[in-house]
Design brief:
The chain is α/β, with parallel strands linked by helices and 394 residues long. The protein contains 13 helices and 14 strands. It folds into three domains: 198 residues, 3-Layer(aba) Sandwich (Rossmann fold); 63 residues, no CATH class; 74 residues, Ubiquitin-like (UB roll), CATH 3.10.20. α1 runs parallel beside α9, α3 crosses α7 and α6 crosses α7.
């Protein structure tokens, strides 16, 4: 799974990325700070199942604080997008190509309106951030449309020769974007089967639906702490009621995480509070008081952890599954519940067996729901935070 971080230059994209990962990236208030895409590991947060067993887990990958488990996901921060990117303006071609493997897109919008359409600094609230939502989606859908149109004459000829198997040709053309034959078959059922009767609007509509299915977008409304930005939050939600929109402050989250890393404060990502552990200097005190008053108390969190959780669990519909044994929750090194895996909702016990190891899947006998101490079969549907033991032939 790959979460793509997108947006025009200078909206706080790289700050958002660093606040999630603490990766060493360039952050500056000018266009195209990010040239090459940055990849790093972020984490989604769940209530750990260890508490149900009166244990403290010891994650092999990720971490757990106060029974809050942080499960790794890969993040991709790409170059900023400007109007006309699908035509090659700015770093558009590179930007779009970098996004091919992303499963969900987080659009970081400067909700304070302090950067214009080119990503140049302007007076806060002087630019309308609602413009950015429409232009970015249009650029990505134009990209998809271009790829579909590129092979359209070939599709029409293939339909005549292959008796309507258009979905296979479209899926092949867009396979690099995550478009499958099953998806195109499903989507094309809503269109005219005779391609000679299609017009440009039909092609655009097909591209839009495929984009929505393969690259869903949620909006991270960044810089919420800027005075007046709240009005834009209200406006953007009214204009785009079908979008998932999360108010956030990447700079606040980054500050808290860096102070926590330096052991100056105790902060669990996603919480609405923190505890000061060491004496702070005057500048740090001023910043931390501002964050507490204008972000945590007002919005209940910085919003950054919410963005990742919503992207993975609500939009992509993933669940978390732990491997474990009925009689033993530890591995060979004594670590309690050391692993947990993100699985698509609707996954079965057999799917989980293959996730753990190909041999477990091929030699599957049965699975055991550890919480219920119940034997289940290969078609058993898994639920979020299940602990599953796989029994297989050796």
């Amino acid at each position: 799974m790959l979460v793509g971080i997108i947006g025009k230059p200078s909206t706080g994209k790289s700050t958002f990325f660093k606040s999630c990962t603490l990766a060493d990236v360039d952050i500056a208030n000018y266009p195209f700070t990010t040239i090459k895409p940055n990849r790093a590991i972020g984490f989604v947060r769940i209530d750990c199942v260890d508490k149900e067993f009166n244990k403290q887990c010891n994650p092999r990958i990720g971490y757990c604080i106060d029974h809050k488990r942080f499960v790794p996901v890969e993040l991709l921060d790409v170059a900023g997008l400007v109007p006309g990117a699908s035509e090659g303006k700015g770093l558009g071609n590179q930007f779009l190509d970098d996004l091919r493997q992303a499963d969900v897109l987080v659009h970081v919008v400067d909700i304070s309106g302090s950067t214009n359409e080119k990503g140049e600094p302007v007076t806060p609230l002087s630019y309308d951030p609602l413009n950015d939502v429409e232009f970015l989606e249009n650029e990505i859908e134009t990209w998809y449309t271009t790829l579909v149109t590129k092979g359209w004459d070939k599709f029409v000829r293939q339909q005549k020769m292959e008796h309507g198997e258009l979905f296979k040709a479209v899926a092949k053309q867009l396979s690099g974007l995550g478009v499958t034959e099953d998806l195109t078959d499903e989507v094309l059922r809503g269109f005219n089967e005779d391609l000679t009767k299609w017009n440009n609007e039909d092609i655009v509509s097909l591209a839009r639906i495929l984009r929505q299915k393969t690259k869903p977008i949620i909006i991270a409304a960044n810089k919420i702490d800027v005075p007046g930005a709240e009005k834009n939050i209200k406006r953007i939600k009214e204009k785009y009621p079908d979008y998932v929109i999360i108010p956030c402050s990447a700079m606040a989250e980054l500050t808290l995480r860096e102070l926590s890393k330096d052991e100056k404060v105790s902060y669990i990502p996603g919480d609405n509070n923190f505890k000061i552990l060491k004496e702070l200097n005057d500048k740090e005190k001023k910043i931390i008081e501002y964050i507490d008053l204008n972000i945590l108390k007002k919005f209940n969190s910085t919003g950054i952890q919410d963005v990742l959780n919503i992207a993975v669990f609500d939009v992509l519909k993933y669940i978390v599954i732990y491997p474990g044994g009925v009689n033993k929750l530890t591995d060979s090194e004594g670590r309690v519940l050391p692993d947990c895996f993100l699985m698509k909702d609707g996954s079965t016990a057999l799917d989980f067996a293959f996730k753990l190891h190909t041999d477990f899947g091929k030699n599957f006998i049965r699975a055991i729901d550890v919480k219920k101490r119940l034997t289940v079969g290969k078609d058993h549907l898994l639920k979020n935070k299940d602990v599953i033991e796989i029994v297989a032939n050796k």
